[in-house]
Amino acid sequence: CLVLFFSGLDTITGMYGETLEIPCNIGAIKEEDVLITKWKYVKGLAGDLLVKQKSQNVVDSATDEYKGRVSMGANSNLLLSEARLSDQRTFTCMVVASQDIREYPVNVAIYKMPAALEISEKAEELEIGKLTKLGKCVAADANPAANITWLKNNKPLVADEKGISIQASVMVDPVTGLSTTTSSLEYAAEKEDTDAQFTCSTQHTEGAALVSSPVTFTITYSPENIVLQVISQGPLVEGDNVTMKCIADGNPPPTSFNFHLMETMVRVDDSDTYTITNVSRDATGEYKCSLIDNPSLEASVDVKVNYLDINLSPSGSIVKSAGSALNLSLQIDASGKSKVSWTKDNVKLDKEPIFRKLTYSDSGRYECQVTMEQLSRKASFELLVEGAPVIRQLSKQRGEDGQHKVLICEAEGFPKPAVSWSINGTSPVESPFINGKITHKITVVPSANLTVSCTVTNKFGMDTRAINVSSCKYKCSGKNNYSDQTKLVVGIVVGLLIATMIVGLAYWVYMKKSKQGSWKTGEKENGSSEEEKKLEEKVEENSQKAEV
């Protein structure tokens, strides 16, 4: 008596186009006890595939689509090559033993990964806020049908029917039965999407995720901000060229603008700059630029043209008389705070010169420099102080050898005074004529006491001064000459002392007698005060009569 057993239904999976191995028996009956092994399938009509009796070869009874595709492997397993979707059915392995018959049904599922994903029908550009078809992603020839996910910077996009819209469809190949999934993405871009990477992906049941190559898009948007710049190497000054540049943040950026120049508007096409040449101080003011297609979007900038003008009065060559005054006037017209400095003959002065009473030393070239930031202006005048000459000092010195005397005449005046002496001297020396001053020296050897005069003259007048010069009675030199001079000085001093003592003694006697007489008569002493004063003046006069 044979007993028929059925095992539970198992399901195995295979990959499309590959060889599928379907297990049989799984060790429930020992191989030596098996008499017959038979593979068959059920899908609609039943069909036999393979039969193997003990100690005999396998008999292939397959027909139609399985002819040439089936074989028996180890453990009586069914080998099915070139797996197809039509192979998704139940295959049964029947095992006949001496005491029983067992059947092992196995359900087969066939899977196929989709082909590589690619984004096609890409948009040329995306406009901010406008829902635009970004592209299409296709997962072809898959089983089961693939589910496609769109990603931006590796983050999934979820349809919200506002800024993101995703439409998917599945087509089944009537021959192969494989499914092709198509997904289209409509997307409203944002400004932050510049350089964003968009991809599509699918995760299959039996394999790793597939991801398309990333794509980027040009994001276009209307300008929202505009800036006006002044291009300059530094602060603007009169005579400079000033270039204004208008910058807007749209994409693509605008290339044509309106420039508002004070009261004038200038349209500039295919350029974002405008240049004003040779600007003047009148160009100071507010400037604007705006979009041609959106005049309300504008930018402005204040332009300042720096200037510096000076007027020095008097200027040029100035001739003034000594002792007179000279009034200076420096007028400054500047766009900012300025700084003034003065020089005389290229030597810096501590302050502005003031001429209340001109002297010859005031003659020279005066220059003022006015600076304001990088601007600098200069003005100058040449001052010449002239007048009649004046002798400031006439002096004498003893020569080093004691045999001659040096006369020195110091004078001022302009033009240069001519110097003359009333006697002929030797070794004349004249100093350089500087600041209206001149010094003239001569050497004389007087044989007697005499008076020498120095005379200075120019076209405005003359001046004369005299000096007494004593003679040199002893013609000697060196040590002896010095001794004689010493004796002479000592004699004079002793004589003066003796004369002073005699006068003092006479004065004492006189006062004594005067007092006696007044006591006798009872008169006051005030009557002798005038006589006392005259006597004192006489003594003083005698003491001042010494001469070198």
UniProtKB/TrEMBL annotation:
One of its GO terms (biological process) is cell adhesion. Gene3D superfamilies: Immunoglobulins (2.60.40.10). Residues 514-548 are annotated as: Disordered. Pfam families: C2-set_2, Ig_3. Residues 521-548 have a biased composition (Basic and acidic residues). Residues 114-216, 223-302, 323-380, 389-470 form the Ig-like domain. The chain crosses the membrane at residues 488-510. It is a single-pass type I membrane protein. The keyword Hydrolase does not apply. Keywords: Adaptive immunity, Cell adhesion, Cell membrane, Cell projection, Disulfide bond, Glycoprotein, Immunity, Immunoglobulin domain, Membrane, Repeat, Transmembrane, Transmembrane helix. GO terms for cellular component: axon; dendrite; plasma membrane. It is found in: Cell membrane; Cell projection, Axon; Cell projection, Dendrite. The keyword Acyltransferase does not apply. This is CD166 antigen homolog A-like. It comes from Echeneis naucrates (Live sharksucker).
